[in-house]
Amino acid sequence: MNALFLVSMVVEAVFGIGFIFAPDRLLGPMGVTLNEAATTFARLFGSAIISFPVLLFFARISENSEFRKGVVKSMFIYYIASDILLLLTQLQGQMNALGWSVVVLHLLFTLWFGYFLIKKQVVAK
Fold first, then answer.
1. What average pLDDT score do residues 30-38 get?
2. Mean of per-residue pLDDT scores for the chain
3. By C-alpha distance, which of 16, 33, 2 is closest to 78?
4. Is the N or C terminus of the chain more exposed, i.e. has fewer CB atoms within 10 Å?
5. Is pLDDT at 32 greater than 70 in this prediction?
């Protein structure tokens, strides 16, 4: 689980920093252009995403299994919701083919966090 926390922590930090400081550069290669209002909301989104690495860092060093399980559940829900939104965005043609890489990345995290949810429930029984 520590590997999952570390990988997700790094990926979310990169995206969070990108959304805060350079949303146009982050989204431009995917064919997304932002107006002023969208740039502001992208930066706001980045400020929320940047909290994930902090949460994941504390989960990684914690010995409290309930806290770690809560983080896994929270991140799983985030990735499920983001999968749906990203897939809809991609299918509506709002991103170019490179957008599929973000869809797949989030799907992989969903499966990885989901594995630990299932594994923990099986072990608890």
1. 96
2. 93
3. 16
4. C
5. yes
Whose CA is closest to 83, among 100, 106, 101? 106
Residue whose structure tokens are 């929270």: 74
Q: Read off the amino acid at residue 38.
A: A
> Is the pLDDT score of 121 beyond 90?
no
Domain boundaries, the chain: 2-124
Q: Kindly tell me if the per-residue pLDDT of 125 is higher than 80.
A: no
Whether the pTM exceeds 0.70: the reply is yes
Please report, for residues 11, 15, 99, 124, the alpha-carbon distance to residue 106 in angstroms, rounded to integers and kept in the order given.
Answer: 10, 12, 11, 27
1: which 2 tokens? 């689980």
- What separation in angstroms does the CA of 116 have from each of 35, 76, 106, 113? 39, 10, 16, 5
The widest CA-to-CA distance across the chain, in whole angstroms, is 52
| DSSP assignment of 61-119 | H---HHHHHHHHHHHHHHHHHHHHHHHHHHHTTSS-TTHHHHHHHHHHHHHHHHHHHHH
